[in-house]
Structures are given as structure tokens and as C-alpha cells.
Amino acid sequence: MSILSKDSLNFYRGTKTKEELKGVDADLERLLALLAPHWLSTSAHKILEYLVRIYEVHAHQKHSLIMSFLAYFNNTYFLKAIQLANLKEDELFSWLEPFAYQGAPIDKKTIIWAFSRNHGVIFSKYATWLMDSSVDGEHHQKFLGVMMIEMLRQDSSDQVLMFNVLPIVSKCMKLDNLKQSGMLAIAQLVAKRALSKEYTYAFIKQIIQTLKHSDISEDSLKLRGLQVLLVIVQNQSVDKFEKAEMDCIMQMPRVAKAVIKLSEKFDASELLRIFARSIILLDDSKMMAGFEKMLKDVNLKTMYLLLKEMIEHEINTPLLEILKAADIEAFNKTVLSLIN
After folding, report:
1. What does pTM read for this prediction?
2. How many domains would you assign to the chain?
3. Which of 15, 74, 90, 241 could form a disulfide with 245 if both were Cys (CB 3.0 to 4.6 A apart)?
4. 55 close to 16: Cβ distance less than 8 angstroms
5. In sequence order, which residues have a C-beta less than 8 Å from that of residue 133 and are 6 or more positions away?
6. Torsion angle, alpha carbons of 92, 98, 99, 102, to 10
């Protein structure tokens, strides 16, 4: 029996075996996940009315129903959804009961408070439900991204919360529809907290691996990944990138164009310095040739950092001529300041 067929009109839980109910409940869970991106549509509301009347999803799939509406917390539809369920003594959502009873709107601060309490239990359950159910849709993607960032902004002494959030960030990086959210969360984390060397390099590898296994023709994702790498090297202690990571970066299609675009929007001098140092230490002329294409309209800070790396390592490459050609006066002043 299909859960939306004519036969379903005669559905009654009391007449079904445990195995039959298991199959029906699994189908209802899948349907709620499919409907989750569409709760602003009146057509989806008609289906929900049917599911409530025939299957009592507000009682038997209560948590999944509320999870599917969480991204719409500031909408009256969310309020109507939580009013369907008995939340008074619910282990996850009892905090919603006063809002349901009073018909009061819920603000973002309340959602953040609820998600972060008990070391982020509700946040973890919501994120797990979202990813395990393969829920798509812009509302839920944005909501998860915002909540991840908010969780990482919470009390830095709550290490358990951090350890609960990190696996979710990692999982987001492997899912096409959540990669950007994962990268934004990493940027928030590295900008706020001093991380161990192991954590820092693990994030660097994860971002580069994500870009490697993505459709790199998507320039927005590539630019976002480079931007997060920039935030990491600006805020954490990074010596160099390993050969595998540099190989991956230099082999990305149109990477030089992306780096130039990044440099136009932000001060990318520190990332360019790390690239230069990594390539110099690897002594890879092919990589150096690719790196030289990234240098367009080099600012004084970038020139200083790159020349400093070459002088420290006693390197003489065509890069010197490129920097000199970019701004001869700035080049000469920088060399003199470094020598002195």
C-alpha cells in the first residue's frame, strides 16, 4: 500500500503488525524529508493535513516533523506545526511548548540558545537528521550553515560542544549541497580560536580535498575554498603546504585567475607567501611557473613577503623579474629594506 494511495484512507494502526508499521513509518519519515524544503507551499500543507489525519505524524513522527520545520522558525507555519504536537514533556522540544501554547513567535536568539544547550544536543540531532535524510533545499542549507557558525561562536570553554560540532562540519564538506556551509563554519572557527597544529593542517587538507573532489569548474566554490585557506593562514600558525596539497592547488583549472580575483577582494599576501615558501622548499620549477601567473598588480606587502622568502632561501627565479616589472620603484625600496 502506498502511503498516499486511495487504500490509505482505510489505514488504522491498531490493525497493522509491527513489521507493517515499520515499513509505513519509514515511508512517512522519507516523505517528511522530501516535503521539508516545500513547507512554504500550500500544496505541501494539504499533504501534511492528510498525513496528520490518516497517520497521526504529529504523534508518531513528531521529532522528524518538527525538524523539517525548524528552518522556518520565524514563520507562522512553524508555530502551527508545533501546535499539532504534544511537547510538554518531550525530551528534545519541551522548550517549544510555551510558544505553542501562547501562540508566540520564536526569535533567533531562542533557537541558538536551545541548539547550544547540553553541549549542542539538539543541533547535533538536527544536523544528523538533515544529512541522513538527504534533505535538500535552500532554507535548510542556509539554516544549518548559520547554526554551525553560531555554535562555534558559543563559550570557548565548552569543549564538548566543539567536539560535537566538528564532525558535522567535516561531514558537510563531503556533501555537495553543504560544502559552502562547511567552509563558512571552518572560517568562523579558525578566526576565533587558536587551534593546535594538527587541527589546523587537518582543516587545510580537508578544504583542499573537498576542492579536489568537487566540480572545480564552479568558480564560486573554488574562490570560497581559497578564501577559507587565506583565513586559516592569517589566524593560525602555518609554515607551509605539503607537496600533495600544493599539487592539488596548482592543478586546479583556472586557479591563477581565482587567486587574482581573491587578491582583488582581500589582502591575500599571506596566502601567496605560503604558496611561495612551499614551492621554494619543494624546488619545483613547474609549480613556480604556475605560481608566477598568480601575481598581477602585486601590492607592496606581497612584494615584501615574497622577496623576503627568496632572500632567506637564497633563491633566484624568474619571479624576481616579475616582481621587478610589477613596480620597479617599490621593488628597489623593498630590496634595500630587506638588505638593511
Report:
1. 0.74
2. 2
3. 241
4. no
5. 29, 30, 33, 36, 64
6. 160
Tell me if 44 sits within 8 A of 35, measured CB to CB.
yes
Do residue 74 and residue 91 come from a single domain? yes
**HEC sequence for the chain:** CCCCCHHHHHCCHHHCCHHHHHHHHHHHHHHHHHHHHHCCCHHHHHHHHHHHHHHCHHHHCHHHHHHHHHHHCCCHHHHHHHHHCCCCCCCCCHHHHHHHHHCCCCCHHHHHHHHHHHHHHHHHHHHHHHHHCCCCCHHHHHHHHHHHHHHHCCCCCCHHHHHHHHHHHHHHCCCHHHHHHHHHHHHHHHHHCCCCHHHHHHHHHHHHHHHHCCCCCCHHHHHHHHHHHHHHHHHCCCCCCCHHHHHHHHCCCCHHHHHHHHHHHCCCHHHHHHHHHHHHHHCCHHHHHHHHCCCCCCCHHHHHHHHHHHHHCCCCCHHHHHHHHHCHHHHHHHHHHHHC
Supply the range of the domain harboring residue 119.
107-131+138-151+160-191
Instruction: Indicate the range of 131-135, 182-186, 289-293, 307-311 predicted with least confidence.
Output: 307-311
| Residue 95 shares a structural domain with residue 1 | yes
Over range 284-300, report the average pLDDT. 78
Based on the fold, state whether residues 33 and 117 are members of the same structural domain: no
pLDDT of residue 245: 94
Whether the CB-CB separation of 287 and 279 falls below 8 Å is answered with yes
Residues 97 and 119 in one domain: no
